[in-house]
Amino acid sequence: MKLLFEKSVEGCALSILPELDVPEYRLSEGALRLKAPKLPQLSETDIDRHYSELERRAFGVNNGFYPLGSCTMKYNPRVNEAIAALPGFTQVHPLQPSDTVSGCLEVLKLAGGELCEITGMDAMTFQPAAGAHGELTGVMLIKKYHEARGDFSRDKIIVPDSAHGTNPATAAMCGMKVINVPSGADGCVDLGRLRAVLGPDTAGLMLTNPNTVGIFDRNILEITNLVHEAGGLNYYDGANLNAIMGVVRPGDMGFDCVHLNLHKTFSTPHGGGGPGAGAVGCKGFLAPYLPNGYGEDRPESIGRVKAFYGNFLVVVRALAYLLMLGREGVTLAAQMAVLNANYMKKRLAECYAVSHEGICMHEFVVTLEREAKERHVTAMDVAKALLDKGIHPPTMYFPLIVHEALMIEPTETESKETLDLACEAFLEVYRDCMAAETPSQHPLTTVIRRPDEVRAARESKLIYKF
Ligand SMILES: *Cc1c(COP(=O)(O)O)cnc(C)c1O
Predict the structure, then answer these.
(1) pTM (2 decimals)?
(2) Phi and psi based region of residue 295 (left: phi greater than 0; alpha: psi -120 to 50; beta: remaining)
(3) Ligand 1 center to residue 359 CA distance, Å?
């Protein structure tokens, strides 16, 4: 597919700009460009076709089933988009006097209150722009807490081996040493190994529960207690709250601080690179260290982590979503997410080996370790063949503790009919791959088939040379 620059034809510009309705202003000579910018020149038809073609090449939740584990690719109700598009929310400027935006401030307050209730926290900031950014903010709070008490010896963050990669990365970015604790055969934190690494140098623990193999760690109270007894704090990675919202609360599990991905659980479309929001909630004793929002002045604050109020419209969508679902609806959504995952897990077990038996939460992991050894059929082969069935592949080769992993998260917004069709596709792909005499050639129907992914990432071409 050609770039707009390559399709450009000299003189083929659009001239449909509206009439100037403000006084004309001339920049000073020094600020003027010497040469006109090299913008592509195309007709409206060609621009329209270009972007429609790009859209056809993308795959989103509105194109088909998208069970990308840990990413919660659920349907985001359109009504929340409509609400976030209201002029009262979009036609405001962050530097406006606060008494002219009291409605917007009310949205932040209400959303903070709802999410505090859901997480069992006392205070919330919406400044962080994404999950990883929220983690950074949270670990900065933990660090600040220890320092404020004159305890400078706590420089270690404990992270289970099933953690999302952003957890160790966050701890390292905060200047902490990352201590890995292995999971037991049941997928839960190994308590003995946890005890062994706790000590006066423990700053805290970062944990996601249910974890990335979809298991709720039933020792959670003992885990968070052990960390507290050692003088550390507990950080809850709540990027995916889909299994527990309205059912159990991180605050009741012994966590001191959490982040939520509003763009996963709370109705902001994601996958295209943003904007998102990694709201951070904390218990009252950490609140004095929260980032100062606009007009706030906490003397002990860790400082700003983003300009103004964060990605405000993401918060509007989250609030609209929560108010629409209500207390019962939030709980029901979580229960349906868990039910859908268990239904699929059970059906896929007809062919696929699941990583951990028993009831899962919002997601589960299957492994093709045996098939890879015996038949050279890999998780990659299954994922690529699913593309030809119009299904977005599950998360692949993650979590690292399961070999040849496919991590499947159907979400609550899929009907039983869709789940049945998807299950049949998964089973058919399995049987086809296993029966094939030659290595799999899938996908056969996509524009790009099996790219060299490492090279595509390392040598990506992002600059157009005229
Ligand atoms: C998605 C995710 C993150 C990171 O969130 P971003 O918004 O992509 O930075 C962190 N932890 C878990 C468990 C996740 O699933």
Answers:
(1) 0.93
(2) left
(3) 23
